[in-house]
Amino acid sequence: MKRALLSVALFVWATISIMAQSGTNSPYSQFGLGLLADQSSGFSRGMNGLGIGFREHNQVNYLNPASYSAIDSLSFIFDTGLSGQITNFNENGQKRNANNADLDYVIAGFRAFRHFGIGFGLLPFTTVGYNYGTTSYVGNTQTTLSSNTYSGSGGVHQAFIGAGWEPFRGLSIGANFSYLWGDYSRSLVNSYSDSYANTISRYYSADIRSYKLDFGIQGTLPLSKKDLLTVAVTYSPGHKLNADPECLVIKTNSQESKPDTLPPLRIANGLAIPDMFGYSLTYNHNNQWKVGVDYTLQKWASVDFPEFSSVDGEPQFTLQRVLKDRHKITLGGEYCREEAGRSFFRRLKYRAGVSYATPYVTVNGQDGPKEISASMGFGIPIVNAYNNRSYLNISGQWVRSSAPGFIKENIFRINIGLVFNERWFAKWKVD
To answer: I need a labelling partner for 310 at 20 to 30 A (CA). Which of 33, 116, 287, 391 fits?
Structure first.
């Protein structure tokens, strides 16, 4: 009972912490729904997010709900992770640094009955967080300055529950149902050093309350007594998000006593998420070497997104095709000499991975930043008098986002995940 209460307390604390943080200072989070969160847990972060084809008996792998069927019987697994990062921004030789630290996710899972597992948890879906400004002279004059101040905050959170079932040996299917909620606010304030010029402010906002479905399948083919090949596929259908994005335009002039506030521009049900696909091949040799490749495709190009424009001086807020399909490929693996052994060093897990991703947003009509990243990490067994099945997952990650003519970002991140693997469902015999 004490362990159950502790797990509930940790879950509530993690929920409050995740909802209170944005986790980014990137100016690219002002586009689309924000930065897409890396929805990977501690063990897969060491492989740079690889995991669609992994079937872990002692980890909750929500990248593919079919994997829940592999969770050990008699176990309750609780996994929570946090990260700290330093981001270096570089534009035209000017460099700035920003620091962030966040509680990233909290998930749990257990086997409900034979070949049937349950997973649930909380994690971010997108994040928005930025504050910067630009200044330039108006026209050919060297007297009037135009300043633009950009700021934004918020994001979308995801709470999920799912199940995985293995109806036949070597074949597993699963599904996650998620509740999406959150909001974002963005602003652009344009002002001039000439006191007679108008200051124009635009404020964007949206409140999201919707759902998300994820389906997964894993098929495992034995190549020999010690070698397995797993083929995995995931699919998430796209749909509208039941949100009415709004744009408020305010004009201010120092010569007038009251600002001119235009009627809010609103688009009914104007936000959506696209169809998302994932494919994976994973090779497992004797539960020592596990290597794989994941490919994901998100069809954002088919999604309309609200954009502000001005036609003959009249403000317009309309749906436009300004997003792009996002492709991501990840290659990684894990090595553990003897997972079930008694030696601490034999049970250490060594992980590494690399990824390449294309952007899903455009910036002033051009493609947004492409992303390359790499990570290395360890799974460290936690051994004490009453538990030798829990793990501490630690990894370091480097991410570079860049596009010609735009800000370059280099992120150095430390990920820490703590996995509690408790024996909850054993039946005790009394002599």
So the answer is: 33
In Å, what is the CA distance from 5 to each residue of 122, 364, 425? 18, 51, 16
For residue 201, is it left (φ>0), alpha (ψ between -120 and 50) or beta? beta
Question: Cα dist. 162→12, 107, 175 in Å?
Answer: 19, 11, 5
Q: Which of 187, 84, 44 is nearest to 128 (CA)?
A: 187
Residues 152 and 131: their CA atoms lie apart, in Å, by 7
Taking the C-alpha atoms of residue 145 and residue 147, their distance in angstroms, rounded to an integer, is 6
- What is the C-alpha to C-alpha distance for residues 367 and 324, in angstroms, rounded to an integer? 8
Q: pLDDT tens digits, the chain, 431 residues: what are they? A: 455 445 555 555 555 555 555 567 899 999 999 999 988 899 999 999 999 999 999 999 999 999 999 999 878 999 999 999 999 999 888 888 988 888 889 999 999 989 999 999 999 999 999 988 877 766 666 656 677 889 999 999 999 999 999 999 999 999 999 999 999 999 988 776 665 566 788 999 999 999 999 999 999 999 999 999 999 999 999 999 999 999 998 887 756 656 677 788 999 999 999 999 999 999 999 999 999 999 999 999 999 999 988 777 788 899 999 999 999 999 999 999 988 777 888 899 999 999 999 999 999 889 999 999 999 999 999 876 566 778 999 999 999 999 888 899 999 999 999 998 877 655 555 55
pTM of the model as a whole: 0.90
What's the alpha-carbon Rg for the chain, to the nearest Å? 24
